[in-house]
Structure formats: C-alpha cells, structure tokens
Amino acid sequence: MKYKCLNPIAEVGLNIFTEQYEKTDDMNQADIVLVRSAAMHEMEFTDNLKAIARAGAGVNNIPLDKCAEQGIVVFNTPGANANGVKELVIAGLVMASRDIVGGVNWVQTIKDETGVGKLVEKGKGQFAGKEIEGKKLGVIGLGAIGVLVANAANRLGMEVYGYDPFISVDSAWNLSRDIIHVKSRDDIYKNCDYITVHTPLVEHEDPNINTKEMINSDSIAKMKDGVIILNFARDLLVKDDDIAVALKSGKVAKYVTDFPNDKTANMEGVIAIPHLGASTEESEDNCAMMAVKQLRDYMENGNIRNSVNYPNCDAGVCTTAGRIAILHRNIPNMLSQFTGAFSALDINISDMVNKSRGEYAYTVIDVEASDNTEVVAKLTGIKGVLKVRVVK
Ligand SMILES: NC(=O)C1=CN([C@@H]2O[C@H](COP(=O)(O)OP(=O)(O)OC[C@H]3O[C@@H](n4cnc5c(N)ncnc54)[C@H](O)[C@@H]3O)[C@@H](O)[C@H]2O)C=CC1
Ligand SMILES: O=C(O)CCC(=O)C(=O)O
C-alpha cells in the first residue's frame, strides 16, 4: 500500500506504518494521503485513493463531499493538537494586553547604543499594559481547544463566558464549573473584554450555524469599546475589512490572528502569528500518530474512527476468510441488494455491520469465501454504491 504526504508529517507517526506501506511522491499511485494545511479543493483523485487523513483538526482544505462521492474516507485527529493551540492562545491574551511585541522590537532598535539599561528604564513606559486577571473572556466554540482555553483562562483568574450550541457531552464534562454558560453569541459580545473564536469554518444560511465572517461590523458594534479579539481558528471567521475599520476607530483595541493574509498582515493593531497554533513537537507527533493509526485500522480492518465524511464503524479484526467493505449512499434497499449479491453466489455472510451518516453509509461484510472477485463486481454495479474494497 502506498501513502503520500502532502505536508511534512512527524516521523514518529510515519514510523507506525509497517513494511506493508511504502511512501510515494505520485498522488496518482497513492492508496492513502496524509495532509496538514495543503489546499486539496482543486485536486483530482484517482479510483485508487481510499482515504485521506488530516493530521490536525480543521478540514476546510479538503473537499469532503467530493471525497464522499468517490468513496474516499476523510479522517481528522480531534484534540491531538488542542494543547498546543491553547498555550498559544494564552500567549495571545498576554501579548494583546502587554505590548510585548512592541517592546521587544524597540529593544532591537536601541541594542547598539551605549547604556541600553538606562535607555530601557527611560523608554519602557510607552509599552505598559494591562493584566488579564479579573477581566472577562468570551470563548465561542467549546470543543477540544475552546474547553482547554476556557479552563486555563479561568485558572489564570479571568471570568470566562462560554458559548457553543452544539457542545459535545465530552466537552461539557471537561468544562470547569466556573465557566459561565451563555445561550447566544450576543451575550459574549456585550459582556466580554476579550473574545476568542474556536469553531470550525462553516458556511451556512442559518446564522446560528454559520461561522463564516461571524466577526463583522454588526457583531463588533455589539461589543465593548476596546475589546480584544483573538482568532486561532480560521481567518475567514473574521471579516477583515470590518476589523480594519474597528481597529482604526479604537472600537477593537487589538486583533490577534494565527492566519495573517494580505490585508491583516499590513494592519495596525494586528498581532499576526504565522499559523503556529499546532506547530509544537508534541502536537505534530500526536496528530501524526493518531492519523497513521486511524489509516492503518481502515486499510487493514476496514474500521473507521474519527471520519468527517463517513460514519464511524468498528467491525473489529476479521476472523473469517474474507471481509468486504462497501461505501454507499444512505438510501433504501441497499442492504437487501448486498445480501442478494452474496446469496446469488452461494456465499455465506458470517457477520455484517452497517452504519450511516447523513447522505452516506458504510457496510462491512465478513464472509467464509476467500476469493470474492465475482461478488465485488456485482456489488460495484449496484446503483448507489460508491466504492467496494476487499479488506481481506
Ligand atoms: N491555529 C491552529 O493551528 C489550529 C486551528 N484549529 C482550528 O480550530 C478549530 C477548532 O478546533 P477544535 O477545538 O480542535 O475542534 P472541535 O471540533 O473539538 O471543536 C469545535 C467546536 O465548535 C463548536 N461549534 C461549531 N459550530 C459552532 C457555532 N456556530 N457556534 C458555536 N460553536 C460552534 C462545536 O460544537 C465544537 O464544540 C478547528 O476547526 C480549526 O479550524 C485547530 C487546530 C489547530
Ligand atoms: O497542521 C497545522 O499546523 C495546522 C493545524 C490546524 O490548523 C488544524 O489542525 O486545524
């Protein structure tokens, strides 16, 4: 089996591949792809491609529907880089409150003069700031990162407000009881001195689901004067032109972004970090290991864990002679056609697992026959079947 890495993937993860797996530079030869932030929307995928693993959380660089249509399972690695991002968000809170960046840059301008120590004591007043303790922080999106940020800020003495209409049970369990749970984004906007966004980028007509450009002139108008906004999620969550106006007027005191672009990189009042949230040894290792383990389980057993376009499915390890995995549409009458195809060829089904997610479904069938070439051809011809894999 061949794998291609579209971005550098930590060696400790790639080492989990056995000798059954071989690295390729040719996308057309790849059975599986590992990716971080590389843009995949314009790529064409061959029938050979079976799975893509995003070593990270955000999957907006991957065409999920196109992949699902081609029977390509897309995985991500939820939570594996959350601590790395949390730590940088805390740094962002402090950097936006104390002019650390301005001060450090200023020292570079005086470093060759004599009496630097005296100059520092004389000039440091221009970089004085505020403390974060006692201030109000609003966290929009209480997933793996948002929960860690909320709890850490709370431990640093901030009063933390959290908003997430789709919060998972796990996140709810992990959230400190001190976090003030609010029911609308507006409650965050009107109350908080600092606002940090930790949602995926979602474009949707329902404004409660949509996150694209959720920070815009309307939402900013509802915020406190001098608010500080942090964006370690995706640049398109914030409308750049609106933040520019708000920074100029002082309505927004600072905008900290991990996603500088042509506009924000040149904006006064912006602290621009070059997408370093997950760039730690630990996060990169965690993501790579999780991605490779999930890919191997899919390739070797047909199991799906942490997919973002197909249902999760655990069929365990196959103990019979053969295992066939079918990626198909979630429409009526599929299972009866599958079992009919096997019975027409007199093949006994030992076990079957069927799972669905939205428009797509996944069926794993264990059989007592070891040569399943004929039944695979039959299954492939069924309307609504997107891909058939012989796992064993
Ligand atoms: N700067 C960086 O290097 C990194 C950035 N990210 C970005 O951060 C985002 C969040 O990452 P994780 O916390 O790991 O993901 P996650 O999936 O654990 O959490 C996302 C949370 O957002 C919530 N959410 C979704 N739509 C919402 C809405 N309309 N309003 C409020 N909450 C909403 C979900 O319910 C979920 O709890 C990722 O999608 C990615 O874009 C993630 C990792 C690294
Ligand atoms: O791989 C990276 O460094 C980017 C991490 C990220 O943005 C994500 O996981 O969503």
From TrEMBL:
It comes from the Bacteria. It comes from Mobilitalea sibirica. This is D-3-phosphoglycerate dehydrogenase. Residues 323-392 form the ACT domain. Catalyzes the reversible oxidation of 3-phospho-D-glycerate to 3-phosphonooxypyruvate, the first step of the phosphorylated L-serine biosynthesis pathway. Also catalyzes the reversible oxidation of 2-hydroxyglutarate to 2-oxoglutarate. One of its GO terms (molecular function) is NAD binding. Its EC number is 1.1.1.399, 1.1.1.95. Keywords: NAD, Oxidoreductase. PANTHER family: FORMATE DEHYDROGENASE 1 (PTHR42938), HYDROXYPYRUVATE REDUCTASE (PTHR42938:SF47). Pathway: Amino-acid biosynthesis; L-serine biosynthesis; L-serine from 3-phospho-D-glycerate: step 1/3. The keyword ATP-binding does not apply. It catalyses: (2R)-3-phosphoglycerate + NAD(+) = 3-phosphooxypyruvate + NADH + H(+); (R)-2-hydroxyglutarate + NAD(+) = 2-oxoglutarate + NADH + H(+). Belongs to the D-isomer specific 2-hydroxyacid dehydrogenase family. InterPro entries: ACT-like_dom_sf, ACT_dom, D-isomer_2_OHA_DH_cat_dom, D-isomer_DH_CS1, D-isomer_DH_NAD-bd, NAD(P)-bd_dom_sf.
